[in-house]
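Figure 2 data, in text form.
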Amino acid sequence: MGTYYKNAEHIVNGRVGRKLDTFLYHEAKRELRRGEHLYAVVEFATHTAALCVDEDKEFYTFSKLLYPYTFYALSEYAHSRSV
């Protein structure tokens, strides 16, 4: 798949990034500010994962898992801390 943010809990807790007010991919892309990256965050029973979905193929591959997700925008600095 793609790039994951190391500490997804930081995103959910509001320490990093900002939550986007949509569940539609194309709308989330339009809400991004210059230099931001789009992440989809999913909370599993055992852990939370944040996947960078800047490319539509990454999002559509991820969405096939059929888990609920929330979109977040992360700055370039936060994105650079991804693995």
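Caption note: The chain has four helices and four strands.
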